[in-house]
Write a structure and sequence with these properties.
InterPro entries: Polysacch_pyruvyl_Trfase (IPR007345). With 361 residues, the chain is an alpha/beta fold. The chain has a domain of 169 residues: Rossmann fold (3-Layer(aba) Sandwich). The protein contains eleven helices and 14 strands. The N and C termini lie far apart (41 Å).
Amino acid sequence: MHHLGEVVIRRQKEKLIEIVRKFVSRGQPYVLINFPSNKDPGHHASWLGLAIVLREVTGRLPVLTGSATQSIDEIKTTPGDAPIFICGGADLGDAQAGRDDVRYRLMWKYPDRTIIQMPQTIHFANESLKEYAKRTIGRHRNFFCMTRDRQSFELAKANFDCDVEAGPDTAFGMGALKPFEADPLRVLYVMQPLGEDEVDIAKARAIVDGPLTNWINGPNSLSRMRKSSVVKSALRHGFSRTEMIAQHRQDVAARYVDYGVKILSGAQRIITNHLHGHILCLLLNKPHIAVARDGSNLHDVIGSQTGDSPLVEKATNAGELLAAMSRLPYELGGTWYKSSKPMHPSPAVPAPDLIPQPSIV
């Protein structure tokens, strides 16, 4: 069956490779930081996609990997020309992290290192946190900021004294995914609570019924060290501790991604307000509706980067769901249909971004 997200996925991965090649080349050492401390398949998808792209470009594992909570002192033992890549996770400016955010700690401790924040949403809870970010970034001089939505790009360009570039979420580095065998399900809601921005899900489910999951609580067993990771690392790289840990973290990320993919696999239609719910639906060739308030970061990403795929429709409230559902394509006998007409997409000609992505200035 033809993949209706193929052009978008290829374009986004090519952009990620282009970004990474600005900082590393074949064989060059690098550091990868901000391994997810949670069980969210979306955050693990970002880590796995970035790990895949970095390995494709450099041909090697990172010389060090780390999470946001661990000590960053070990970086001083790595080669001085190894740039530090920070994987997107919680928003840059997140009030929960504040001045302890891993990005700020890295900039203060390693003023001479190249530090790259990979595509990320930026949101500050208050002005004092924004001012602190401005001072810290301005002091460092070798910090590169990548954003994944237009609002974040404009905020960064207006406030940060560093190079800023817009790019896709690193989850696209995984490429197209295959669903697992699963019992068919007409509609699935993959939703997270968003406070004042939340769309009324009860009203939505009264219009289009289906089970609801927040999908972020996978089993703890997925994060355990397994012999397979040790053996894989030993066969490829010997018994290097840092490379074993890097291989282990990549394998853990892959398990959590598989956990999310299994949840999505049986659904014919998916309704989500997760950015990574949208991205994984694209990678899995799943028709879906992105529900969010008007002007949200989710709809921003779709409008500027991924909306030319017929797999996604947008809705801003429960009342728009039914109309959006009717516009989604459906598969019958291996052929995609839309409005009862067969679709004959041609993946040979890559489509441009709907809105050209700004590049480093």
